[in-house]
Amino acid sequence: MTVWTIVFALALGFSAGILAGLFGVGGGILFVPALVALGLGQVEAQATSLLAILPTVVTGAWNQRRYGNLRARTALVLGLVSIVGVELGAQIATSLPESALRRLFALLLFAVAAQLVWRARRQSRRYPESP
Fold first, then answer.
1. Cα–Cα distances in Å, from 43 out to 28, 54, 87, 97?
2. How far apart are CA 40 and CA 13, in angstroms?
3. Is residue 131 part of a domain?
4. At how many degrees (to 10) do helices 28-37 and 3-23 cross?
5. Which tens digit of pLDDT belongs to each residue from 104-126?
6. Range of the domain at 56
7. I need a surface site. Which of 7, 32, 59, 73 has the fewest CB within 10 A?
8. Is residue 8 part of a domain?
9. pLDDT tens digits for 39-82?
10. Number of domain units in the chain
């Protein structure tokens, strides 16, 4: 890996983080295309993005536990069910051709974009600008 690849990766990660925070979307929506641009395959990019979420999940759960907002039993059930979902998702993702997985991810991106537009329009109707 060259120095320029590392600089490019850091710039993409920083930009994606800023944009995800500004638009209120999950970072994976932006990180997966960035990782593909860096040369990873679609499956590897999606898996890397999902793995990168783990520190955020652990930190968020720890903080919410400190605030008294964590329901341990519900979290445990969701965690166990998620393991099954991850296994099924991984099997499906690896069985699909890379081009089909990219198209499905593109559909997800369009759905997220549509949701952002819908939310913005709904909020602008709720809080119209004064003349």
1. 13, 18, 13, 10
2. 14
3. no
4. 160
5. 989 988 998 898 889 888 888 87
6. 3-126
7. 73
8. yes
9. 889 889 888 888 888 888 888 889 999 999 989 899 889 889 98
10. 1
